[in-house]
Here is the input.
Amino acid sequence: MIRYIGQRLLQGAFVLWAAYTVSFLILYLLPGDAVSIMASGDEQNAVDPALVEKLRAEYGLDRPLYEQYFIALFKALQLDFGLSIKNGVPATQTVAEVLPETIKLAVAGFALAVLLGSALAVVAAFSRNRWIRQAFSSLPPLGIAVPTFWIGLLLLQFFSFRLRLFPAIGNDGGQSLVLPALTLAIPTSAVIAQLLTRSLHQTLGEPYIEQIRAKGASEALINFGHALRNAAIPTLTMLGILVGNLLAGAVVSETVFSRAGIGRLTVTAVNSRDIPVVQTLVVLAAAIFVVTSLIVDLIYPLVDPRINTSRGAKA
Amino acid sequence: MSSHAEPLLKVENLRVDYVVDGSPRNAVAGVSFEVRAGEVVAIVGESGSGKTTTAHSIINLLPGNARVSSGSVTFAGTDLTQLTRKEWQGVRGKDIGLIPQDPTASLDPLQRVGEQVAEALTIHRLQPRKAARQSAVRLLEESGIRDAPSRARQFPHQFSGGMRQRVLIATALAAQPKLVIADEPTSALDVTVQRQILDNIAALTTERGTSVLLITHDLGVAADRADRIIVMRGGEIVEEGSATAVLGDPQHSYTQQLIAAAPGLSPRRLRPSVSVQNPSATADSGTVHVSPLVEATSLRKVFSLPRTAGGARSLTAVDDVSLDIRRGETLALVGESGSGKSTVARLLLRLDKPTSGSVTFDGVDLASVRGERLRQLRRRFQVVFQSPYASLDPRFSVEDIIAEPLRAFAEGTPAERKSRVKALLEEVHLPVDYGTRRPAELSGGQRQRIAIARALALKPELVVLDEAVSALDVSVQAQILTLLAELQVQESLSYLFISHDLAVVQQISDRVAVMQAGKLVEIGEATAVLENPVEDYTRQLITAIPGRQPQRSLT
Here is the structure.
């Protein structure tokens, strides 16, 4: 077991290194470096070319690529991704300042998504009424198809402007969290509902379900005591990926509702070519993927006795 | 005996239809029968005869598209067809138990087996949870599970197929139902396990006075176990009577056919034994030396196992096995699942390499050839697998399937291949126009014929039949065996016939090799091995053949 976790952590370290390296190379290949972007900020006050050169030397941009890379990597290992070009604050600090807001949003959004998605799937699979089953089965594809920003705009229009129930923008308290979290939750819940409904249908056709029915079990016991647990397993596999998707959703949700958070920070950092911040965000996203998929793998054997991690370690 | 009292179960004029594509298709057409208290009644028939549908309509577990269109089912004085959903929950498991067909898929994989047995008691509030758990351990013990207290805490995947069926028997009998429906309870199991399971059901139900409705396609099983036998065909009962009467003096021609098809009931050879190529005979003539077609010498195959705490590191699947297959003969390789017989076959076909030992095919060491030479050698040995459902590509037409080996070896022009496919279809007694159909449109027996035609396409010398008839109904099994015997003579084939069923083996083989736990325990002429087995294990396999038990005295 410990061996297994050790192996997974090594894999995780590799993923983080690869994410860092690839993003470094891509950003390097893009035309224009940090200093020239800073310098070209204003047409009227053209910056003195000598000053630009001095700055480039200061940032180490005049050195060969491999030197720049190893210096940057060495610093990154110490969680130093450089100073934000925009305000000269360490990039990690810029990210850390807004991270709690996004964590709040993501946790709320994810919890909502799991609740909403499971509820949809349960009704779609267990209802005795054929029309209800069909209606609820057709909701998830709709939820996936509709663009997230549009859902956000609709919610904003209806609940903030028309009903004035929730604030339209900002980060003040629980009230302001509701609509962004809902915007984030709807597409994710649709994916969960889709997977879980299909899995439930399949599980309900298994011979052991009939056997439980033959014992005299009520439909409630069959559905909630046996089928749901069995059907949840394939969905669980997808949760790691869905958590990653939440980050992408956060970009849209935070932009629509003008919330501070790493989603909106990503957009501004990319627009202003704030390379240190972008790299911090890339590595952070990779780390989130690594950690969630490790957590999912560790939960798996607890849910499914057939899976043995110490055996999986060999493969 | 309570034969004059009201029967426990009375089925009257039962009709069941399946709605397929909007129109009803009749599956059970007016069936009437009774089961008395303490009686064992067997319903015998092929797949599609309506036997399982009849059984499932008694316990109201029909699939969603099935409707009971008329008739009544009276159980202990109540008309079951009038029950509400809620009332059904009180009958299932408590008054009528079900032992299912496929034990491997009939237990919840996420629940400990003890809990699953206990659930049968707690659902009906017969015992509180804690007491039910203790009862479950006792029930598992009675069903023949050793070390039940700790086994009860294990999960289904830690049990073998036979052991899972014991768990399901314990579950079905937990609430002491008056009737147990056993739906093909052993068709997914090995013959030796089959006998233990049927013994177990018999012992437990006799002790409790439980009635049993046994559904089976094997008349041999019915003959051994039932007081009365009902023979079904096409949704109707064609014959019904005491086991002795039905077997001893069958009235309907279909029953007679079934008796003839049941290998255990009518042991016979399908063709004369091969004696022409007996090595001793050729040794006398001195001029022609006939070497065996296949010679395997001290084969060993060791699989390494994933590391587990304290577990073994490797598994010796085949341990020092030497055998030969003579030209034109049928060598049967018998043994239970896990005995290593399929691994031997894989080594002989060079689908796998032995850890040590060698295989020669017609004098060529299989380990020494590779690439194109091996490919050319492969034409000469073909294989037919157990499941005709899994071994045919569902997207290919029958013609494509049979012609595939011809295309692979670029045999003939497309037109020639087409006519070869036609000839092959005729050889396996299928209509020529089946070429355009797809596997899904065919029955299990028809699919197996196609798999045989495909194996014969390249005119091989050796055909390995890996449990090739085990997945088929008894009567279909008999047809396929007859076909194989016929083709063997026509095409002068050698067969390696792998089976766990000695009843089938005795019908077709010249020599028999018995494997147990990776070792070859006995090999010899079929008649010698089957009539005078030297090894205990072989004797066990022989007594496990259904239909061989002395008739029970019907009191």
